Amino acid sequence: MLAKPNRLQGVRTIMVMGDLGTGGTQRQVLLLAQHLREYEGADVEVWAFGGEVGATARACEARNIPWRIVHLNWFTSRKDRKIRDVARFTGELRRAKADVILSYLMAPNVVCSLVWRLTGAKLCIWNQRCAGVDRLGARIERLAVSRTSKFISNSEAGADFLMNTLNAPGNKVHVVYNGVRKELPVKDRRTWRTDLVLDEEAFAACMIANLSIYKDHATLLRAWRLVVDEFESQGRECALLLAGRFDQSQHGLKALAFDLNLGKTVRFLGEVQDVAGLITACDLGILSSLAEGNSNAVLECMAHGLAVAGTDNPGMREALSTLNHEFLAAPRDAEGLADRILRLAFNPDVRDNVGTANRHRIEDRFDPQKNFAQTAAFIVEGLEENRVRRKPAST
After folding, report:
1. What number of CA atoms fall less than 13 Å from residue 160's CA on the CB side?
2. Residues of 162-190 as b/e, b for ≥16 C-beta within 10 angstroms?
3. 243 Cβ partners below 8 Å, 6+ apart?
4. What is the rounded distance in angstroms from the CA atom of residue 255 to the CA atom of residue 269?
5. Count H helices, E strands: the chain?
6. How far apart are alpha carbons 81 and 179 in whole angstroms?
7. Element holding 270 (H helix, E strand)
């Protein structure tokens, strides 16, 4: 049963992440911030360590959620600059008078966990969004973990990483799945396909993920070469639509697509604001990635009733319906991934059945109101524990 609304009335809550661009973490932060503000009554701000003023900043403005960039470079080689940035960030948190700090991704998690007790905050929650692909070094990570109030993971795989790799106490780790809403498309399927110059009968698959070192687009491109060969042998058209910010991997991936002679069968779309419209225009979702928590992109594909082909890892199995598990291939197995894609591509009835099962799983496990309310309850619990610890002993 959900608790009554406004249980966090006036609680100053600062959510800290790496940047304000486009990504699954940013999407979840935005949705949770909106829930905490509108339903729970919290006073919420969204902060980022750096990057450009991107889509998440604009979305915050549209929802009247304050945001700011605090300019902290954890990855600088200059130790004096890192210390200075962390000290300045600590001071800014202190001046902001935060009651609760919610951090996301490794660098913000580590920094916030190290400094939060110096800021006057009552609670700091480490939010684990993956199964441990973005590492800063075991020593600093474990020190930060030892100073953290509580942990939320969006997957069992992430919780296992926290407990078994970072030694987080099991009684402080709580799994709360992502909340997913089926968004309405801005442009319908026909309009998207017209804009892409893609025939209505063509088979289209999409992978929604920033082109970064943390995803495995390279294996997908090699698999897609095999998929294209099979489609061409049958005189059919296919297209792979890659949506996501052009990060570290973009040049190498575009060069690989050129070397594989993929031509117009692969489209590098960059950041896409109308993700729901893109998904509606596609017949299959794909995620090639060596490690995942609960991928927001995969969940959005599921919400729209798509089957998903991808990499077999615990996070993917946890997210997808059991019917979809047989369409996951071993990591870096291009031939295996191509086989899964082709099996779904040439069996529309199977694809529809798997997509329907995925949609039902979203409705059952990833309800946003229910899951965001769980996070709010976890915050309330942490604040109460802090109040009890600080209460003077009776004389």
Report:
1. 10
2. bbeebebeeebbbbbbbbbbeeebebebe
3. 206, 207, 208, 209, 269, 270, 271, 272, 275, 278
4. 15
5. 15, 13
6. 37
7. strand 266-270
Residue type for 372, please?
F
Which one, of 74, 75, 3, 79, lies nearest residue 36 by Cα? 3
Taking only the tens place, the pLDDT of each residue in 79-101 is 889 999 999 999 999 999 999 99
For 190, 209, 285, 317, 351, the CA distances from 185, given in Å and listed in that order, are 12, 18, 16, 27, 21
For residue 358, the surrounding DSSP H or E stretch is helix 348-365
Degrees to nearest 5, angle at CA 141 with 330 and 139: 105
What domains can be seen in the chain, in order of their start residue?
12-179+367-390 (3.40.50.2000), 189-365 (3.40.50.2000)
Length in residues, the chain: 395
Contact, 329 vs 310, CB < 8 A?
yes
CA atoms within 13 A on the CB side of 1: 2
Contact 70, 52 (CB under 8 A): no
Look at residue 395 in the predicted model and tell me its pLDDT.
39
Q: What is the DSSP string of 87-132?
A: HHHHHHHHHHT-SEEEEESHHHHHHHHHHGGGTT-SEEEEEE-SSS
Is the four-CA dihedral 27, 28, 33, 34 of positive or negative sign? positive
Confidence at 1, pLDDT banded by 50, 70, 90: very low
112, 122, 125, 121: which is closest to 32 by C-alpha? 125
Q: C-alpha dihedral over 334, 336, 341, 347, to 10 degrees?
A: 160
Distance from C-alpha of 18 to C-alpha of 81, rounded to nearest angstrom:
18
- Confidence band for 74, pLDDT divided at 50, 70 and 90: confident
Residues 180-194: tens digit of each pLDDT: 888 899 999 999 999
